[in-house]
Structure formats: structure tokens, C-alpha cells
Amino acid sequence: MRWIKEHKLLTGILGTVFLLCIMIIVSYLTQGSTSPIGRQIERATSFIQRPLALAAFEVRDGVIGFRRVLAENEELRQEISELRAQNMRYRMTEDDLEELRRLAAVLNHEIMTYEHEVVTANIISLDGTNWFNVFTINRGTNDGVYENAVVMNGDGLVGIVDDAGANSSRVIAVIDTTSQISFIVARDSSMLGLLWGDGNGALEGFMLDSQAGVVEGDILLTSGKSPMFPRGIELGRVTSIYNDPNTLSRTVTVEPAVSFGNLRKVAVIL
Asked: Is 161 within 8 Å of 173 (Cβ atoms)?
């Protein structure tokens, strides 16, 4: 008795279960009986069994529905993954086509004559910098590439071949600090100067005439004074001008015409 008092809830549950079992057994034994007791037991059993059966059906349907939702979610994740991969392939294709369009512009450049041919190349490795100062292309002497060959794309001058191997070549970009290029101002070829890389992805240099009327926004081209670089290849746009009172020189900072951070394909002039 003491145990029952201490466990009233558990006792009530066990008692209810026991009573239900008795009613189910009696209902089975009196099934089909027309006696008043049998009918009352059947009604009571049906009253209790109906909500229990409905609850069981709901649980079953819920489990089946949950499994179906999980399967559909997995299918959707797979479709999303495939669509993302497909979109990436399309994006790469578009980028490659855009690069090829830029390279095609090289063929229409004024330096191209019947004496020049061009071979396109992919950049296959970098020297570890962020600005493509020095990089390797997948073309070499077997493709006609030679040392000091001009490298460019449709936007402008990229650099020169520093070392040509049989199947690959190393290129020094114009933005490297070791490069030196003479230039002219596009709107007035009488204004001359010298440029080199500033080590941060841009160009800097000075005007040969400290009184030259160069202004911000001027486009600079290769002068053709050096046998390495033909005349008229775009180098970049002047972004700032500084008159140094100590050296009495006029210095310029230039944004390169070529986007070196996104460079993947180039054209080598043979």
C-alpha cells in the first residue's frame, strides 16, 4: 500500500492498462454477443480503440511523410549542386570567349603586317606575386616563340619573353620593376617619356621634357624607339602627375591598359 501511495501516477497508468486489457479480452470472448454486457463492452472498447487507432495512423503517416520530405530535400540538393556546376562551366566558357575576343583584336592592331604572325598562349604558372609580374606560358621555341618576343592582348602591351624553352616560356610583364619602356602620348606624339613597373601593379615614369603638357587621362603608347617594342601599342592611362622641384622632372603614374589581375591568355607576336 505504501508503494502505491508513493507511486500514484504509475499505479494509475498500470491500472488503466490492466483494465483495458480485461475489456479487450472480454470483448473478444463476447464478440458477436447480443447481451447487454457484451454490447456495452464493445462500445467502451470501440470508444477507446478509435482514438488510439487514429493516433497510430497519424504517427505512421507522419513517419512516411517525413521520409518523403527527406528524400525530396536530397533530390533538390543534388539538383542545386548540378546546376551550380553547370553554371560554373558556362561562366568559364564565357570568360574564355571574352579572352579570345580580346586576343582577336591583336590581329587588327596596326603593328600586325604580313611580316608578323601571332600565337596564342595560356598562362600556366606564376612567380608567386599577385600582379603577374613574371609568369610562364605554354608556348615555346617549338611554336616559334623566341627571346624578347612581344607579348600582348587586345587591351595593350603585356610584356616580353625573357626566356624561351621548347614548350614553355617565361614572360616579364611591363609592370615588373625591371622593365623600362619608352612611350609617347597618343594625342601628341612629340611628348616622350620613360615608364617602368612600380611593384604594386601599376606603372610610373617621367616625361623627357619637364614642360610637356601631359594631363591626367592621357593614353600612353609604345614609342617604337626600342627595337623590342613596336610603335603604337597601348600601355595605359595617366592617373596622376607630379612636378618634382628637386629634380625639375615631371613624373607620371599610369594605370596599365591590361588587367593583369585577371590575365589568363596572351598573344605572342612572332
From this structure: no
Give the separation between CA 234 and CA 237, rounded to whole angstroms: 9
Does the model's pTM come out above 0.85?
no
Asked whether residue 104 is assigned to any structural domain, the reply reads no
Q: Of the ranges 39-43, 100-104, 161-165, which is most confident?
A: 161-165
The SS3 of residue 13 is helix
The model's confidence at residue 240, banded by pLDDT at 50, 70 and 90, is very high
Rg (CA), the chain: 42
The dihedral built from the CA positions of residue 232, 233, 238 and 243, taken in this order, carries a sign that is negative
Residue-wise pLDDT for 20-54, tens only, equals 666 666 555 555 444 555 555 555 555 555 555 55
Decide: 189 and 145 in contact? Cβ < 8 Å.
no
SS3 72: helix
- Give dist(CA 190, CA 194) in Å, integer: 13
**Distance (Å, whole) CA 211 – CA 248:** 9
* Domain with 136 in it: 109-270
pLDDT band at residue 88 under the 50/70/90 scheme: very low
Residue 101 lies in a domain: no
Q: Is residue 103 part of a domain?
A: no
